[in-house]
Amino acid sequence: MPRKQDKASNFSHPGWRVSYNLITWIILGITVSPGNSVFVGLFMLGCGLLFDYAKCTPTTKIRSFTKGVGMTIAVLTIMLNLIAVFGALTVDNNLNIKIESFPFFEGNGFAVKWYWLFSGLTVIWTLADWLGEYVEELELEKASLQTAVALENGERGGTRA
């Protein structure tokens, strides 16, 4: 049975999305420095994901769901990092994120590694999205095999009598 796939170019395949997302996430984690460059990088990553998700048109319910969640994660990534780029968050010399101008939390902070690990949600979701492509395919193959077995048993039963 033919496999249902997204209508996409070679570079908007979910596997490619996982690859560039993982590489970018690792590089951003390795190169964290004081200032707001990590937020700029994560903002750009979110923009890339959003445009990549917007380019493909899922042909199954599972893929439509994963696309919707992926776009939501991308938009939240963009918004949070845009707020940070405009000065609400900064990375200090001790590699802690300091909340500069955000109501109710001003002056508080936390280790940048927690922010980086949380941003790994984009990697996890793109991987789930890619794997979701194969779930329905496996279900279709199983149904096809069950139909073939049922037809074969029906034919045998009919020829014996």
What would you say this structure looks like, in words?
With 161 residues, the protein is mainly alpha-helical. It has helices at 14-30, 37-55, 61-88, 112-119, 121-160; strands spanning 89-91, 96-99, 109-111. It has a 3-stranded antiparallel β-sheet with strand order 1-2-3. A hairpin with a 4-residue loop joins strand 1 and strand 2 (96-99). Helix 1 packs antiparallel against helix 2 and helix 1 runs antiparallel to helix 5. The longest helix is centred in the last third of the chain and has 40 residues, at 121-160. It is elongated. The two termini are 32 Å apart. The mean pLDDT is 81.
Report the biggest beta sheet as strand number plus sense, adding barrel if it closes. 3 strands, antiparallel
State Rg.
23 Å
Beta-sheet strand percentage? Answer: 5-15%
User: How confident is the prediction overall: mean pLDDT?
Assistant: 81
End-to-end CA span:
32 Å
- Number of helical elements: 5
Class by SSE composition: mainly alpha
Strand order in the sheet with the most strands: 1-2-3
User: What string, H for helix and E for strand, traces the elements in order?
Assistant: HHHEEEHH
**Unreliably modeled segments:** none
Task: Tell me the number of strands.
Answer: 3
Roughly how much helix do the residues carry, as a percent range?
55-70%
What does the overall shape look like?
elongated
Keywords:
161 residues; mainly alpha; 3-stranded antiparallel sheet; 5 helices; 3 strands
